Amino acid sequence: PSILASSTIPPMDVKIDTAKSLFGSKFSGQTATIIAVAPGRVNLIGEHTDYTGGFVLPFAIDYSTVVMGTGSVEEKPDNQERTASIRFVSDKSPEEVESFEISESSKPPTETAWTTYVVGTVFQYLPDLKSSQSHLDLTFTIAGDVPLGSGLSSSASLEVSVARFVEVVLGDAAFSSVDNDSIKSPAKWRALRCQKAENEWCHSPCGIMDQAVSSAAKAGSLLLIDCRSLTFNETKMNEQSDDTPVLVIANSNVQHDIAGGEYPVRVAQCKTATEALRQVNPNIESLRDATPDDVETAREYMDETSYKRAKHVTTENERTLQAKEELERGDWNRVGELMNESHASMREDYEVSCEEVDVLVDIAQQFPGVYGSRLTGGGFGGCTVTLVAKDKAQDLMDHMQQEYKARTGKHCPCFETKPSRGAHLLSIKDHKPFV
Ligand code: GAF
To answer: What residue stretches are annotated with the GHMP kinase C-terminal domain (predicted)?
Structure first.
């Protein structure tokens, strides 16, 4: 796994140079014509609400994945179904050129490897090929710096960058197999396809948040996502006052794995809680439809675990909608309180935190100049996000590293970040973004 260097985010050029030299050495004779980029993400608030159709408020970060390469679509008269040849190499295992042949009838492997995220994503685009004689040919390199297993969405960043690359190869045919809406909102459909790749190919029951923000984020904005309608609402922090705070991320260095373990258990527990809520209100289709009052009313029909899970999700949806308002208003104290409440709810009711993350949050919440701090992402390790006065950010990072080491014996890389842009293309000539 890549290591987060404290306070420094590697520049884009480093990733591009890596992708380029890998391409030159592994695929000599071919010319790379496309560079697609997709970021990792941090969620400010709205945790474990996406898979029940709720609200989330994440933003893209400068850590990202670069996919560089070339591709074409050919017609093969002997083809019985739509097919693809995929050849790629990653900076994580630069010696291995991966090679896959897939068709519309390909099935996900039973064992998920990192390559499954790539192949599963390409598979989602096969229906866009014109006919069963069509064949998609892709050759590319991957270079990224999103820390793996740290709750910053390295997998979504990989899927979305591959998806954006495939869309360029397909040109006008991209999304041609879905309805017209996709032409108007490719970012949404890209996110849905990448989520499907992860759900069906990688056996991970994740929600839509990570793929959606990696696909659709705009620089300078957080994205309020309604995970049911999949509508995106850009949210800017109020920057009119001089005291606009900054966002600091700290990595507990405890690795998480959302496909195994507790994440699917939480997804199932939300379903059980919804069944109980339906006994008092049959119109509740998912936790998104319930209020914290509904949960109290239905408590007698629930076991303690269902009650706690439903309480977290319903209160978290309210906190998320409120946080959007307060961010725009610039009420940092209130945003901070909501973040602190969110963390307490994740720790006590949703039970997705862990000792080290609680220590990190505790250190931050005690520090002068901090408005609020909480676990971000799936949990069971990973990172925290802290809202802190701009002039206290460096002191906070130094203090967190020292204190965390003293209390846990572990190192916690920290960095300051700002909302960055979602999936985009760079010119192969000068590496500047296409608008
Ligand atoms: C992980 C999942 F991938 C997201 O869909 C989301 O559920 C998140 O955990 C928790 O909010 O990142």
So the answer is: 324-405
